[in-house]
Amino acid sequence: MRTQVAIIGAGPSGLLLGQLLAKHGIDNVILERQTGEYVLGRIRAGVIEKGAADLLDEAGCGTRMHREGLIHDGIEISFGGARHRINFKQLIGKSVIVYGQTEITRDLMDGRSAIGSQTIYEAEDVSLHDIGTDKPKVRYSKGGQVHEIECDFIAGCDGFHGVSRKSIPTDVLKNFERVYPFGWLGILVDKPPVSDELIYANHDRGFALCSMRSPTRSRLYIQCRLDDKVEDWSDEAFYEELKRRLDDEAIKRLQPGPSIEKSIAPLRSFVAEPMRHGRLFLAGDAAHIVPPTGAKGLNLAASDVYYLWQALVDFYKKKSSAGIDAYSARALSRVWKAERFSWWMTSQLHRFPESSGFDQKIQRSELEYLVSSQAAMTALAENYVGLPY
Ligand code: APR
Ligand code: PHB
Fold first, then answer.
1. Structural domains of the chain sorted by starting position, each given as residue range(s) with its CATH number in brackets
2. What are the pLDDT digits (tens) for 13-28?
3. What's the gap in Å between 285 CA and the centre of ligand 1?
4. Does residue 48's CB lie within 6 angstroms of at least one atom of ligand 2?
5. How many CB atoms lie within 10 A of CB 326?
6. What pTM value is reported for the model?
7. What is the number of the ligand 2 atom nearest to the C-alpha of 293?
8. CA–CA distance, 206 with 210 (Å, rounded to integer)
9. What is the per-residue pLDDT across 252-261, written as a single tens digit (0 to 9) for each?
10. Does any ligand 2 atom lie closer than 6 A to the CB of residue 193?
């Protein structure tokens, strides 16, 4: 088989890139290790920046997001028993859309089926070859048979554990990483949200977040220990702990209900540089991970895809390699800014096991400064709604 761009991974990055390329007449095939149902079973954050929303529109897959997504003009930060609103709309005239990442993936999959582009699910043992030449190849097996795809470029959109990043020689790739000493225990529940906007809570017992998927479905998180096990957290214990970390008004509005999903996620900051090697480009979680505080994962994947899509369109339509050559530096410049913001949000809102009395006083004074300074709130707003592409 031959295609112009072979895309590894049918997560949000691979599907969005595939859709944008196809819309501009660039042929592509997606290889995904799992089944479509498995990919749709993953629950992830749900805050969409304007830039990512525009890109979904460009891909022709934004209709349901605009219909069902919730426009949020701000967030609330809670500490010391009180809540403080950061009003994005007033500060910088922008908003975000709260819409589940699972739904975005579904919309992109539907869009791909509608235009008839090919996704090969359950592709096993994917391997990349000749990436240093202008005739790279991808091999995979399916149904006991080995297949080969010849292509011009490979887009590694296969997430943190994928094969693409590992195909770049170790003496070329540099990894930067911070692993945080706690996790997030999250539940999904069919009860209305605690507040109209997201509440990010800093408490002596640890961080909590009240988020949502719709007017009738809540997504709730509490900071937990890294060695905690989901089975050891009953719904009752979860709500007890969440209540300890929220303000009185939030506790009054919290409607506990049976969880329909419960999981623990570790928190990590990670960047691999460069994001290109020869004819292989990394995009999304394959190249970088952010802790979920600030919900930048999908949004960063979208900006990578934007730069890569533009670079490939320039290559095929204008015969220019300039975008391809600039891809890694352009993408990384925005990646590091989002890494900084996610690290900062995480640092200000969580309880670190090793933190001293001094560290805790500094954290509290940073939060007090934040909610009392127009400049500080504007800086948060600008980063939360998303820096320009
Ligand atoms: N071969 C083929 N597919 C693979 C391989 C492989 N060797 N390894 C991983 N994959 C697939 C995974 O099964 C997954 O469906 O690649 C896909 C990667 O998807 P994500 O992990 O979602 O990564 P990405 O698309 O970059 O996501 C960006 O969305 O899902 C969130 O947390 C993610 O916020 C981040 C954003
Ligand atoms: C979520 O709704 O899952 C969510 C929202 C905001 C975050 C992280 C996760 O910062």
1. 5-73+95-177+268-346 (3.50.50.60)
2. 999 999 999 999 999 9
3. 7
4. no
5. 15
6. 0.97
7. 10
8. 14
9. 999 999 999 9
10. no
